Amino acid sequence: MALQPKTPAQIQSMRTGGKLLAEGLALVESKAQPGVSTAALDAYISEFFASKKVKPAFLGYYGFPATICISVNDEVIHGIPKEETILQEGDILDIDSGLILDGMYLDAGYTFGVGKISEEARLLIERTKKSFFKGISVVKAGATVGDYGYEVEKYLSQFDYGIIRDYAGHGIGETLHEDPTIPNYGTPGKGMRFIENMTAAFEPMVTLGTEDVFIDADDDWTVLTDDGSLAAHYEHTVLITKNGVELLTQL
Ligand code: MG
What DSSP designation does 182 have? Predict the structure, then answer.
């Protein structure tokens, strides 16, 4: 499908919604302490969205049962908050949520540690975030999806990490997932060209081991690394402009 630019009014709604989403995620991070269940974190952001009169984008999406995905340690993405998942010192967790404001979707997330975490986990989180910024540094109207993926992959290739290939970033706007699909690897000049005033979610997913993942057979959602290695994720919804990008989902 041809890419659609967003209107000025839609972009304004996404700016407002993006800030609220960033605020909700920061609230969750502040509450993520040892002894807290991931279900409790889901309740915090659910209440926050309700208080701001925005709709959760993930709840009910293909039947997803929560407002936020929380993926702990070797869980990469799409983890379901559970009463029985109690955070422990040293865990790393990806929090990833979305909301709808004025019919426009926002999607963002990131990985952080609970208490003191291992040095290799800390570096994984830091470098996953950095790979996002390396990637978007070349994104602007006229650049291609492959230009982005190439930069992410080039930066990460100096480390012995796995780059998840089964999941990717995506356009976003009137729906949660729109064209184009945006892999975290690629070839310069290849793939769809970004256009001015389109919006997209970029989201590298990186592991300390394999790039291979599987879906938990019990909950049918949680994506885990095949080898049990730790995984990190970093995502923002961005507006693509003539000269670069504007991060919409930051405080
Ligand atoms: Mg996303």
Answer: E
